[in-house]
Each structure stands twice: as structure tokens, then as C-alpha cells.
Write a structure and sequence with these properties.
Length: 756
């Protein structure tokens, strides 16, 4: 098995690949069914095995696998086009099936052994529907930066370790600044010494690897060794239970990780300080330890079942405390296991009926994800129930609780749907409407992480309505939910401000007490500080109540002022609507009835038509001629209007209908008079001169042959000049009329002054 892993990592295309990509190849190889050679896994679940986020898997690991050419990857896209499911085939293993003696031609027991080893080292762990919890591996809770490198390094070290847990160190000259253990790990990983040193320090920091040094007679430390305590503890536990174990219990590292029901769990902790009596005085293991052989298979031929489910880890029901088969109950959320150093871990073969340490596993970064579902029909059953809702927003919001949703009855689902829609409406007032389902899904995932997973929720309906969907603001800010801002996803600044203020208050009180009670008993000072803090808290609450009461009064006063202003506006509007018509006196006409309004509009249009005719025909400097022409045009215009209205409405038409038709006829007359005035002014001397100038300018600019463009420019210039002249003449006409209207009043004032 060690040779198979080394051959797989040395495949062409993986030399320059990153550690997550190389580890992903090993994980996929361990989960490959022996019958089909094709493994189906979700992108999120692969990330939990690698200790990476699903986004990192989709954007870095999957493209890296494709670039390497070692794994043939087919993706199943999700609702938003993301890589949701992966169908992978490890090509070196696929090609080695027909090659006798090839290291990658692994039989079913060997594949099961590799899978058990991977589960013991880095399985994320999961909870079953019946309440049982499968703990995580040694590095199952390790996530974030360097998690994949740590997992790969631990796997290689375990494969190279002997029964005493010692790893044979590399030979030759090495850099003394790093030492031979670091050089050994660097050669295994194919990385630099500095990178290998960081990985070894992280593994050593959590107690999974030790570098003991032999004590010499002179008191100085000798060369260091490299020891994996978990391997030594597993072999020691196997030897202790060899006399009482059944014949079918497996005796290697991976087999000891998951004992049968009849096996007796060891009493000693899984990982202990490994300082064996045999060989403790040895120095560098490069000259003393033999190469470690491959692990034996996880089960003998008698433990296999004919016609299995096609999964490499399949075993008889009851032979171990694992799921009945690999796809059983894997659609539940996972609670990441606690570190294996705190108690009995999966390398010792303990009873897995309860979580190590007497409690539920602590959630890691992958606790929101779901495990791989190999049986697609079974795995999508709960998701299909959420998909039956039809509304995409509800599907996205309820995706983290698909298992709980499947346990609700139809009536309960209807009540829960109304509650979810109400929460989405509330969130739409805080964040964008499109982002509200994602925010609610994140809230449900956080609530599930608090309880340890969907399998630990006893009352799905009560949990959804009373805990999962409820917003829990930690401060007065309505956007706060458990100390996080719903709109940005960052820490709530209001909560941070409250914490800062409380810490500042405690610091002030402590400094005053320290200054006033110097030399007194520390317990007395603490008691006095606590008493003053309580008093300050009470005073702050009283001041807050006063501020809230003042704010409530101000809000009430503003509302009363708004109500008074609205009442005044409504009264004024009502009075305006009830006012009689200013022309005919019709009550309830809002100051002007429709008939009078049409009549006023008609009079305005008639005056405009008269002014247009007078402006282009009369001599504006002769007031008498202007008056005579105005009277004549007014008579002609009104006669024309009366004749057109009779022709349109009839002689015996209703006056209201005639008043409604008159503005349209008057507007048509006004437009015809304006067009006639412009045509008349187009022949004026000014318009002709402007058109000629534009024509000549266009010919000079464009040259001969552009007569058509010059004609268009001349016509446009003439029209602009005619419109300007018309506006000018209308202005002069209005000014002359204002002067004529002001002259009689001036004469009257002169006569009044003379009489006085």
C-alpha cells in the first residue's frame, strides 16, 4: 500500500502540483470502488477531506486535477452553475488494472485498507440518524492554510513508520540548520526544507509527531529521531489484545482503527509519550531501522460478501461500528471530531459508540457540509423534498436543513413555509432581495453548527420556528444577528462599541478603586470594584430609560405635528375642492368648472392666433393701425372658430360639448396662423440674406458639387431667421400694447394733479 501511494504521487503531472491537488488524488484513489473504478463525490465533501473550503476546491483543486492529467474529472453543476458533484477516475489506477504486479493494481481488501487508513488519519467524521457519532480522524478538525500539506505529510510518515512508530531517516549529508528529520520529510513531500520544517512543527505542535533525542553520558543530546506515536500505540494495542481478539479482527494500523463489536476497547489512551525500552539508546535511525513494509489487508477473504455494493470500504453489517455501507446516512451534517490526543482515538480500536472525551465532537470549518453520497438516488431524496417547494428562494434558504425539512409533515411544512417567507421579507428590508435567501441559509447553517448537526435535532419543527429562523440581535442595531452584520457579514461595530465601553468603564472604576484603596487587601479592592460597577450599571440603565422616554416623547411630538400639518393640508384641499367656479359660480368646482376651463383655454389660443396675424401684417410703430388690424383679425378669427365648431358639433349641440371642442379648433387655427407667419417671414430681406450667407459658407467649406447640402443649410438658416423675427415681432407687439394701456392712466394722474 505504501508503494501504491508513492507510485501515485510520483505520477507524471503531479511533480509541480500543489499539496491539495496531490492529496486529492490520494483521497480519490482511496475512495475508488474496486468494481467500477469511478468515484462520485461532492465538491464540498472533498474539501472536508482536504481541510479546505468548497470555494477553494472548485477554483483551485478541481482545475489542478484537470491540468495534471492524472484524474479524469466530470462535474455536475448546481443551481447557480457551480461545481456541485464530481465524477472522478484516477487514470493510473484505471490503467494498472490490466498490468499484473503493478503497484497500483489494488485488490478490494487493499483498497479497503487504504480507505480505513485515510479515515483514521483525516476523515471529517459524521453523525448517524440513530444518534451514533463517527469521530473524525487525527487531522479531521484541521482546516485552513496548510491543512492539506499536514494531512499528506502525516500519511507519508505513517506509511514509512515501523511497529515502534519510528520513521527511517534519509541518508547522506543534510543541512545542519534543519536536521535529518526535516530533510526526510522534505524528500517525501518533494518540497523545500523550510516548507517541510513548518509542516513538521505543526504536526509536532499537536502531538502527532515527535522528535526525541537520545540522552548521552555527557548529558548532551544526541541526534534526533522521527516517531509517529499513534502508529506505535496502535501496534502496541494490537499486541495487547491479540490473545483475546477474535480471529476475524484485523491486526494492522487501519484495521485496529475500527474494531468489531466483540472486541474489547483498550484501557490506555490512544497517544502517549513514546519512549520504548527497546532501542531508546539508538541514535539516528538511518542506520538502525529497517524499511517499513506495506500494511496488511483490512479483512480476509471470509469477511467479504459476494455481490457487494461496489464500494471499496464495504463490509458485513455488524463487523465494525461504521455505517452499514459507505452511502448509509451520509446526507446528514457533520460535527467535526475533537483532537485525538485528548483521549482514545481511531488508531487504537476503541468502541465508537460514544464520542471520545465523553461529548459531542466540536464543529470544524466543514461542519456545515454534507458527506459524499455514492448512491445518488438515496442521496438526493432529502434535497428533492426541498426542491418540491418550487420557489427558488425557498430552496436556497432551506438547503442547509434539507434533512430536517424531510422529517416535517405536510401541515408543518406549510406553517414553516409561511415563517420562512416572513423572515425573507424582514431580511429584504436589511439586505438586497436577491441576497436574502443566502443570508437565511447561512443563519440556519450557523444554528445547526451550534447544536452539532441535523442528526441531533429532536424536534425539527420547534427548532426551526424557535431557534433556526429567529434573529438574535446582540445590540440595538436591527442589522445585528449574533454579533454579525446581516448586510455585510462582518463583525457588528455596535456590539464592538458596547464591549469597548464596558471595558473602559471597568478600567475607570478599577483605577479609581486602586487610587482610593492603596495598600488594602486585593479581595476587598475587587469587591469594591464590583460594587461600583453594579452601581454604574444601574445608573447607566436609569439614564438609558430617561433617554428612551425623551426619545419617545420627541417621536410622539413629531407625530402630532405631522398629524396637525396633514389635517391643515386636508382642510385646505377640501376647501379648494368645494370652492365655486370663479366664472359661472357653479358650486363644488374647485374654483373653476370644466366648461369655463375649456372656455379660458379657447380665449388664450384665440389671442395667440390674433397676435400672430397682427405681428406680421401691421406696422408696429403705428398704434392706430395695430388697433384696427387687431379688431379685424379678432372678428375674423371668432367667426372662423364659430363656423368650425358648428361644423364639428352641429348647430344644436350641447354647450358643454361645444366648449370641449372649441380648444382643439382654436389650437388648429393658431398653428395654421403660425405656419403662415413663418412662410411670410421666410421671404423677408433678413431671412433671404441669412439663407444666402449659409449657402455660400457651405459651398466654401465643402467645395463645388455640394449644392444639395448647401440648399439644406440655406433652408435651415432661413427657418431659424424666420422664427427669430417672429419672436421679435411678437415681443414688440406686446410691448406696444403695454405702453398703450399705461398711457390713459398717466393722463388721468396729470389731470388729477392739475385739479388739486
Amino acid at each position: 500500500m505504501a508503494a501504491a501511494v508513492r507510485t501515485l504521487l510520483d505520477s507524471p503531472g503531479l511533480e509541480e502540483a500543489s499539496d491539495p491537488v496531490r492529496l486529492a488524488v490520494v483521497v480519490l484513489a482511496s475512495r475508488t470502488p474496486s468494481e467500477t473504478g469511478v468515484v462520485e463525490i461532492r465538491a464540498r465533501e472533498l474539501g472536508r477531506w482536504l481541510g479546505l473550503s468548497v470555494s477553494r476546491v472548485r477554483h483551485a483543486v478541481v482545475p489542478g486535477l484537470r491540468r495534471s492529467g492524472v484524474v479524469d474529472v466530470e462535474t455536475l453543476t448546481g443551481e447557480f452553475g457551480e461545481d456541485w458533484g464530481l465524477t472522478c477516475r484516477v487514470l493510473p489506477m484505471w490503467e494498472a488494472q490490466d498490468k499484473v504486479g503493478h503497484p497500483l493494481r489494488l485488490a478490494k481488501p487493499e483498497l479497503a485498507t487504504l480507505l480505513r487508513l485515510m479515515e483514521a488519519l483525516m476523515a471529517p467524521g459524521w453523525a448517524h440518524r440513530n444518534g451514533r457519532v463517527t469521530p473524525a480522524g487525527l487531522l479531521g478538525a484541521r482546516t485552513g492554510h496548510g491543512a492539506a500539506a499536514d494531512r499528506l505529510a502525516l500519511l507519508l510518515l505513517v506509511l514509512e513508520a515501523g511497529e515502534t512508530g519510528r520513521v527511517r531517516l534519509c541518508g547522506g549529508r543534510v543541512d545542519k540548520r534543519y536536521g535529518r528529520p526535516v530533510a526526510t520529510l522534505a524528500r517525501m513531500l518533494g518540497r523545500s526544507l523550510s516548507q517541510a520544517e513548518r509542516v513538521l512543527e505543526r504536526l509536532e505542535g499537536v502531538g502527532l509527531v515527535e522528535r526525541p533525542r537520545r540522552q548521552t553520558v555527557s548529558g548532551m543530546r544526541h541526534v534526533s529521531r522521527l516517531v509517529v506515536p499513534a502508529v506505535a500505540a496502535a501496534h502496541r494495542g494490537r499486541q495487547e489484545s491479540a490473545d483475546v481478539a477474535d480471529d476475524h479482527v484485523v491486526g494492522d494500523l487501519a484495521g485496529a482503527a475500527w474494531p468489531g463489536e466483540g472486541s474489547t476497547p483498550p484501557k490506555k489512551p490512544q497517544v502517549s509519550e513514546v519512549h520504548e525500552a527497546d532501542g531508546t539508546g539508538d541514535g539516528d535511525l538511518a542506520t538502525t531501522t529497517s524499511l517499513h513494509t506495506d500494511h496488511s489487508s483490512v479483512a480476509d477473504a471470509s469477511s467479504e460478501v459476494t455481490g457487494g455494493l461496489g464500494f471499496s470500504g464495504y463490509a458485513d453489517s455488524g463487523s465494525c461500528d461504521r455505517p452499514e455501507y459507505a452511502c448509509a446516512h451520509e446526507d446528514q451534517l457533520v460535527a467535526a471530531s475533537q483532537s485525538a490526543l485528548g483521549g482514545d482515538g481511531p488508531l487504537r480500536g476503541e468502541n465508537q459508540g460514544e464520542c471520545p472525551g465523553g461529548g459531542l465532537p466540536t464543529g470544524g470549518s466543514g461542519s456545515r457540509s454534507r458527506l459524499t453520497v455514492v448512491d445518488r438516488a438515496r442521496g438526493q431524496q432529502q434535497q428533492q423534498r426541498v426542491a418540491d417547494l418550487g420557489d427558488l428562494r425557498l430552496q436556497v434558504a432551506l438547503a442547509p436543513v434539507a434533512y430536517l425539512w424531510g422529517q416535517l409533515r405536510r401541515g408543518q411544512q406549510a406553517v414553516a413555509v409561511r415563517a420562512v417567507e416572513r423572515v425573507l421579507r424582514d431580511l429584504s428590508g436589511i439586505v438586497e432581495t436577491k441576497a436574502a435567501p443566502g443570508v437565511l441559509a447561512a443563519r440556519l447553517a450557523d444554528r445547526l453548527e451550534e447544536v452539532g448537526g441535523e442528526a441531533l435535532v429532536r424536534d425539527p419543527m420547534g427548532w426551526l420556528l424557535g431557534r433556526g429562523l429567529v434573529q438574535r440581535p446582540a445590540c440595538p442595531d436591527p442589522r445585528c444577528d449574533d454579533g454579525l452584520r446581516l448586510d455585510s457579514g462582518t463583525d457588528c461595530p455596535t456590539c464592538a462599541n458596547i464591549v469597548h465601553m464596558r471595558r473602559a468603564l471597568r478600567a475607570r472604576v478599577a483605577s479609581r478603586v486602586e487610587a482610593e484603596m492603596q495598600g488594602s487587601d486585593p479581595a476587598a479592592r475587587r469587591a469594591e470594584a464590583e460594587r461600583r460597577l453594579r452601581e454604574e450599571t444601574v445608573l447607566d440603565e436609569q439614564r438609558a430609560q430617561v433617554r428612551r422616554a425623551r426619545a419617545a416623547r420627541e417621536v410622539e411630538q413629531r407625530q402630532q405635528a405631522i398629524a396637525r400639518r396633514r389635517a391643515l393640508e386636508e382642510g385646505a384641499e377640501l376647501a379648494r375642492r368645494q370652492a365655486p367656479c370663479a366664472d359661472c359660480g357653479l358650486p363644488g368646482s374647485a374654483g373653476l368648472c370644466p366648461v369655463c376651463s375649456y372656455r379660458r383655454r379657447t380665449e388664450e389660443l384665440v389671442r395667440e392666433a390674433i397676435d400672430l396675424a397682427v405681428a406680421v401684417r401691421a406696422d408696429l410703430l403705428d398704434a392706430d393701425a395695430v388697433d384696427d388690424l387687431t379688431q379685424q383679425c379678432e372678428a375674423d378669427t371668432r367667426a372662423l372658430l364659430h363656423l368650425a365648431c358648428e361644423r364639428a358639433c352641429g348647430a344644436d349641440a350641447d354647450p358643454a360639448w361645444a366648449a370641449f371642442t372649441a380648444p382643439e379648433v382654436a389650437q388648429q387655427i393658431r398653428d395654421e396662423r403660425r405656419a403662415a407667419a413663418l412662410r411670410r417671414l421666410l421671404g423677408s430681406q433678413e431671412a433671404v440674406a441669412e439663407a444666402d450667407a449659409a449657402y455660400e459658407a457651405c459651398l466654401r467649406l465643402r467645395g463645388r458639387g455640394s449644392e444639395a447640402a448647401a440648399e439644406e443649410a440655406a433652408d435651415a438658416a432661413g427657418r431659424r431667421t424666420a422664427e427669430f423675427l417672429l419672436r421679435q415681432r411678437l415681443g414688440e407687439l406686446h410691448a406696444a400694447r403695454r405702453r398703450a394701456a399705461a398711457a390713459p392712466s398717466a393722463v388721468g394722474r396729470v389731470l388729477a394733479d392739475a385739479a388739486a
